[in-house]
Amino acid sequence: MNTVILTQSEKLSEPRTLAEQVYESIKTDIIIGRLAQGSKIIESELALKYGISRGPLREAIHRLESIKLVVRVRNAGSRVIRLDRKLMEDIYTARESLEGMAARLAARHMPETDIHSLHELLDSHEESIGKTEGKAYFQREGDIDFHYRIALASQNQWILENLHGEIYQLMRMGRHQSGQTPERPARALSQHRLIVTAIEQRDEELAELLMRRHISSAWNIVNRILEKNHD
């Protein structure tokens, strides 16, 4: 069965239930670290924190389990996922291959109008980085996510489903970590612009190479963060 992946605009066009609203709130809090990795899910505390009853909260937690942000531990209840080195190394290894191929295919298939829109997206990202004084580069999900746009432009449903299916939020956690390190926001944005230029020039090989280097560079940062946290 094919996975249906909605863009951010499609999601926002639908009325949200209370469970969906709290699901989005908790998801964001996990990704940006407001809810600590490995912390225990205590329903009474979360119900109070988010102003919600147990029923909708449990529905939200179940959805968070389905996208790997919450894990159920035998005899210990549910906890926020902890990003260990092996898990993230596997994810970034897969990302390097899949996103590299997505960039290659985007250079082959992406319409000129969409490339122009991608330039505009990066201009808006530059403004957002400027508002943080260059300290953070955090992209919301969906069609305002640069990497999502590239995967979509590949016109390869298998790539899109694997990059933006159930592991997408884990990827965003890793990207949020790397995006908080000094000098990374400006460097990442510069790398994004080079990738778009290669796509615009229809240089498939260069687009793939630049994307692979970009993902590899991000992994080096995340790996250092994980090693530091482990110490």
List keywords for this structure.
single chain; 231 residues; mainly alpha; Arc Repressor Mutant, subunit A; Four Helix Bundle (Hemerythrin (Met), subunit A); two-stranded antiparallel ribbon; 2 strands; disordered N terminus
Q: Would you write up a description of this structure?
A:
With 231 residues, the chain is mostly helical. The protein folds into two domains: 66 residues, Winged helix-like DNA-binding domain superfamily/Winged helix DNA-binding domain (Arc Repressor Mutant, subunit A, Orthogonal Bundle); 146 residues, Up-down Bundle (Four Helix Bundle (Hemerythrin (Met), subunit A)), CATH 1.20.120. The protein contains eleven helices and two strands. Strands 1-2 form a two-stranded antiparallel ribbon. Helix 2 crosses helix 4, helix 5 packs across helix 7 and helix 5 packs parallel to helix 10. It starts with 7 loop residues before the first helix and ends with a helix.
